[in-house]
Amino acid sequence: MSQHPHTRTALVIGGGIAGACTAIALHRAGIEATVYEAYDSSADGVGGSLSLAPNGLGALDTLGVGDAVRAIGSPVPAIVLRSWNGRQLAEFGTPAGIAPMRLVWRADLNRALHDHALRQGAAFAHGKRFVRAEESGTGVTAHFADGSSAGADLLIGADGIRSTVRTAIDPDAPQPQYAGLVSFGARVSGSALAPTNGKFLMSFGKRAFLGWHVDNDGTAVWFANLPRPAPGPSTAEMRATSPAQWLDILADAFAEDRNPALELLHGTDPEALLIPGAMESMPRVPVWHRGRMVLLGDAAHAASSSSGQGASLAAESAVQLARCLRDLPPEQALTAYEELRRPRVERIIKAAARTNSDKAAGPVGRVLRDALMPLAMKLVKPEKTAWQYDYRIDWSEPVAALSRTRG
Ligand SMILES: Cc1cc2nc3c(=O)[nH]c(=O)nc-3n(C[C@H](O)[C@H](O)[C@H](O)COP(=O)(O)OP(=O)(O)OC[C@H]3O[C@@H](n4cnc5c(N)ncnc54)[C@H](O)[C@@H]3O)c2cc1C
Asked: 150: CA distance to ligand 1 center in Å?
């Protein structure tokens, strides 16, 4: 392993959006990266649609993949919130002068990032489930469930909200908590629904939450969140109900609402129903790095899906970590990375934290929410949210060492 003061090689654990962005960013910084993914193939088939905020697209531009991602996404100029009866509660978009968010199919985004990382020379190893690590002072060795191991100067945990690297860094690290909702989604081609003019519509139904977007050609994407009591169903329990039965359960939950849920559900092929299952929220992660190991993406800073910022923050963190490793020896680089990232990600996570409880509101909460939200939204000046979206990391600017080091 290298005695070079700066990082030359890195193991990236997890081949999702954060892992692929990290591999690309490390390559830009001159660091050789190998991505170790637990599953046998990349995460192409997983997940529904997600939004990329302009700040995330800015980070992807730095990685040289922004245009490829724009090409697979549709611009979303606004998100409209409605009550169960169709009444508009709020409409918000990016402030004037800032490009709109983009809606992308998560599998398409994964593929674009993965292909770009491969073209840049990153290596991907599949079927490698990280189980533990050993540090030597100048490097780190990762051990995988198949009995194999790999070594490098640094190990980066991009292994998602249920991160194993997080516990390897800090055995007392918090665990994700069930957020009271289970989630579903699908893409429906050739629907007869009216196009949503680029907007993403969301409806706080009486018994479930719906989001949908319809392109001019009738292609619709939708997701639904269904409240379920704690501790929330396990994956096995979710699978015990067939997709066709879930579609019926959802149709029943939306039966009284004035939104297009029933058309969307009837147009969904049960085989194509995505069932991500129990939604989780992640408490603050107090330790992001130890020795030669560090966290990135949902492993460090999982934002609620309502923030629309999870993938964007992962891309930003990848750029920032690579800059720090480019300019500083590993331990100083990890301290600088945390100092540069933590205040921003925690501010965004906090701003989004309330929305999940709004979605799971009971009848009284629902009435209050519907009464107060239009008022609250009038008080939110769009320009006050600009800090989230107009954030850019200057790749060419050198990172200075920070004085504070961890104990
Ligand atoms: C329902 C839902 C909706 C969302 N909507 C949005 C949205 O609209 N906008 C947005 O920006 N974000 C959204 N997100 C969040 C977004 O998907 C994530 O923030 C983003 O993908 C970054 O995730 P990640 O790469 O850190 O983790 P993940 O995508 O979870 O990837 C982690 C990878 O690590 C692998 N892995 C796990 N453990 C191990 C191990 N031990 N060894 C090796 N590999 C391992 C996993 O198989 C996986 O491939 C949503 C998330 C969910 C669940």
From this structure: 23
